[in-house]
Amino acid sequence: MSEQEQRVRRVGKVVEQATAVFEEAEITAVRANDGFIYASLPHVCRALGLDLESQRKSIDEHAVLTEGLLQFPLVSGVR
To answer: Is 40 helix (H, G, I), strand (E, B) or coil?
Structure first.
């Protein structure tokens, strides 16, 4: 099992997908079938100037934060 597969424990179902622009950076977000809205971690890190791997490591170290880590099949070009 790859490192990414170990991190992502659940796969969500996308109900709606949108892209927002924040400080000239695009952030993809989805509304999932559980009613919650999830943002793409790589996109949020890029928009805020944060190191993605450092943030993933921090999330992996906290059981509560890890619960909110889901993988979603995204559609390219959706805004």
So the answer is: coil
Tens of pLDDT, residue by residue over 30-66, are 999 999 999 999 999 999 999 999 999 999 898 888 8
Percent of the chain past pLDDT 70, that is, above it, reads: 85
Q: Give the residue from 19, 31, 30, 56 showing the smallest Cα distance to 41.
A: 56
pLDDT of residue 1: 45
Helix or strand run (H / E) with residue 26:
strand 25-32
What residues form DSSP beta bridges with 28? Answer: 19
Strands 70-71 vs 10-11: parallel, antiparallel or unpaired: parallel
Q: Which long-range contacts (CB under 8 A, 24 or more apart) does 61-68 make?
A: 66/7, 66/9, 68/38
